[in-house]
Each structure stands twice: as structure tokens, then as C-alpha cells.
């Protein structure tokens, strides 16, 4: 196992042994779930429901930040919100085995939400507002903020330091990313200070699962502090959807309409961060297999064009 291939030693046997170390009895059934930053498995158990085993990427988070994520998830669950919290073993949620840190949680399946349905959007808005009521009770002590350094500056340097970016585009990419950073900074300054709170942080449709009983939220791995609108805009495909989300949200919590002007900046930051994330993780064998387009010059040419288009919209 190296920094470039952190999961080389994470074998199916190690996953089963890690679950067994918690005095749970795997029946040998393993299903790898869709996850790139971490590694996540569904593990079948003898005489009980399967569990989800999440193995954290080595070196990404400190123990304190992971434990803070777990405590936030439990705080939300204690408030009767449909959030999947990790299981506790001998007072601990962050576990270790075979050189890896991991957590186990109950399996909660479901289907993708129907984001064209106003009723479902309002339902999600109400739940997110209730999450934010809890999130506003206290700040994170260890987890980061949604800011330009994390979402623009660091990803920009990851791209510039990567062999993925064609040398012929290096100067143009630096100029486009710097321009976007300036445009984002100007928009944030124009909006002015907003009250940050603890967020889900990555509240896109893939992290919402729907059952006959309603929705539940998964994967708080990117939980951080930031504006409330961050947990709303990724679920809204258009103005109608955003209106429905906010209609539900306002039933449980006030919303500062000035935050709506942050959406173009948040969208731009996420798009630049996505490219930097792929570049930073490219040596992980899972990434070339999952994102082969990132090895093509034409994708980076389009990404450059997108950055300028986002800057145009902000300016």
C-alpha cells in the first residue's frame, strides 16, 4: 500500500475479517458499492441483515474529523431525521483493522428520488431544514469550511501538478482557473457574510435514497460548514424545483434569500473541484477505470471552456 495506491492491500478477506472483529459473523457475501474516495462494501451476515462497511481513504481525514462526522450523523438520527449513523462497538464508531480505519452502519436501501415531483422536493426541503436546525446548534471543531481554498485553490494546483493536463493547456488553464477564482471571490464579497452552519455538504441526488416510507440521507463524508443553500442547489434542476424545495424548507426554518446569489459561485467551485479531485486521485487504479475521459485532451479543452463560461456568468 502506498499513497498512490492506498487500497492495494484491502482484500475481500480483510473486509470480512474486519467485520468479524466486531463480533459479527459474515456469511461470505460481499458486494462492492459505488464509491471512489473511500471503499464501501455491503457485507452479508449470518442470521441478520447485512451491514455496510466503509473503509476510509488513508491520509485524507484525521481521526478527529471522522469522529466528528459520526457524532453529527448520530445527532441528526437522535433528532429523528432519516440519516444513517454508524454502529457503535465498545463505545467506538471509528474502528481499525489491518492498517485501515473503517466504520460499519446498517444497510438502508432505496431508489433515486423523483426530482421532477413537487411533493418529493417539498419533502426534501422540510428534511433539510430540520437537518439545518440541528446543524446550527453548534459549529464543527475539526471539519473544514466550504471556501475558495478547499474548492478552488487546492484543486487548481492539483490539476497544474498533474500529468493529466496537456502541457499545451497549462498556461491557459492557470489563467482560466485564476479568473474563475477572482469571479467567485467577487461574488462572495458582493453577497456579504452569511451565517455558516454544519451541512451535509454533498447533498446531491445520489446521496438521497427513497423508499415507500420516504427519503433518507447517506454519506456525510463531505460534511462541513457553509451556507444553507449548499444543501439545496444540487437537488434543484431548475427554478421550479428550487421554489418547491424552499417552500418545504421554510415550513421548518427561515431561509436568507441573499444566499440564492451564491448558487452560481457554488456551482463553479464544484465544477473546478471535480477536475482537481480526479487529478489528485489519478494514481488510484479505480480512477482511470471510472473516469477515462480525463486522459483525453478534448475533455480538458472543454473544461477550460466551461471555466470561462462560468466566469462570464459570475461577472
Widest β-sheet, arrangement of strands:
1-2-3-5-4
CATH architecture title of the largest domain: Orthogonal Bundle
The description of the largest β-sheet is:
5 strands, antiparallel
Beta-sheet strand percentage? Answer: 5-15%
**Number of contiguous helices:** 10
Order of helices and strands: HEEEHEEHHHEEEEHHHHH
The amount of helix comes to 40-55%
Gyration radius, rounded: 20 Å
CATH class wording of the largest domain: Mainly Alpha
By CATH's scheme, which homologous superfamily of the largest domain applies?
Answer: Transferase(Phosphotransferase) domain 1
- Count of distinct structural domains: 2
**CATH topological fold name of the largest domain:** Transferase(Phosphotransferase), domain 1
N-end to C-end Cα span: 45 Å
Q: Kindly state the mean pLDDT as a whole number? A: 95
- Are there runs of 5+ residues with pLDDT below 50, and where? none
Strand element count: 9
* SS-derived structural category: alpha+beta
- Principal-axes shape call: globular
Description of the structure:
This protein is of the alpha+beta class and 315 residues long. It has two domains: 95 residues, Phosphorylase Kinase, domain 1; 197 residues, Transferase(Phosphotransferase), domain 1. The chain contains ten helices and nine strands. The strands form three sheets. It has a five-stranded antiparallel beta sheet with strand order 1-2-3-5-4, covered by helices on one side. A two-stranded antiparallel ribbon has the order 6-9. The model has no long low-confidence stretch (mean pLDDT 95).
